[in-house]
Amino acid sequence: MKRIISTENAPGAIGPYNQAVEINGLIFTAGQIPLDPATGKLVESSFSHRVYQVMNNLNAILEAAGSDFSKVIKTTIFVTDLGQYAELNRIYGEYFPGDDAPARSAVQVAALPLGTDVEIEMIAVK
Fold it and tell me: 34 and which of 4, 53, 114, 115 could share a cystine (Cβ 3.0–4.6 Å)?
């Protein structure tokens, strides 16, 4: 049975989707962009701050689903500039250190919602 995951500690959906859905013990998050859940506005200071905000949003969603980063099995990262790849990897590695990191795809795209430059989605186990 499908369960909808929702938390006020992460930004609400900006379209017809949910923050996450759980089915058969797997949690599928929607792609998260660097929206501050308190203001509903994009974090604009730096690429690093935007990536941290995305990870904070994902952490809140995973917690609401009864999971955490140690249970993430796959991530997909979308960026508008792969020139930011080294900085992205540095921050990502803070959350997924060592040999236990999940599978991952990272792709450059032409544009992302609200004009941001990074979006990340995850699949985790409960």
Answer: 53
